[in-house]
Every structure is written in C-alpha cells, then in structure tokens.
C-alpha cells in the first residue's frame, strides 16, 4: 500500500475524467478516485500507455490541468498538478 504523504486534503471524487497526451486526438478515459488542489488518484484500464506527464480533465466545469505521475500501482496512479 502507498504511504499517505499528501500535504493537501483530498475529497472523494469517484467520477470519470480524461487524460490527453501530447498531440494525440484520442483521450485516455480514467476513473478519478479522489482529488485536491495539488493532485489526484486515478485509475485507467490499460496502464501501459500512460506516460509520466499528461493533461488531466476532471469535469466540464474545471479547466484541464497538467499532471505528473508520482506513483504507479497496477492500474492506479497518483498524480501531482503543475503549479
């Protein structure tokens, strides 16, 4: 299990999102388990295609955010958002 080293409180999101990588037209769908101002825990169906950096869209109201993977555990990832 991953140690909790978060510095910001995360709230349960349990919603769908999308990862956009570079100039790819297609997004990678994901499940967002929780999210804070600084990062999120996400899950994807096929983790092999997920790079270390991508743009994460969490919902229609929130702007897309640049994200960097900080840990990987199977299909789940912890990401931090760029400042």
From TrEMBL:
Annotated source species: Methylobacterium trifolii
SUPFAM superfamilies: PilZ domain-like (SSF141371)
Protein name, per record: PilZ domain-containing protein
């Amino acid at each position: 299990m991953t140690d909790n080293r978060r510095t910001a409180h995360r709230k349960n999101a349990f919603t769908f999102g999308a990862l956009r990588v570079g100039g790819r037209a297609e997004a990678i769908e994901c499940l967002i388990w929780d999210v804070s101002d600084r990062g999120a825990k996400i899950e994807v169906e096929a983790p092999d295609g997920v790079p270390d950096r991508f743009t994460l869209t969490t919902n229609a109201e929130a702007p897309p955010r640049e994200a960097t993977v900080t840990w990987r555990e199977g299909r789940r990832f912890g990401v931090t958002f760029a400042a």
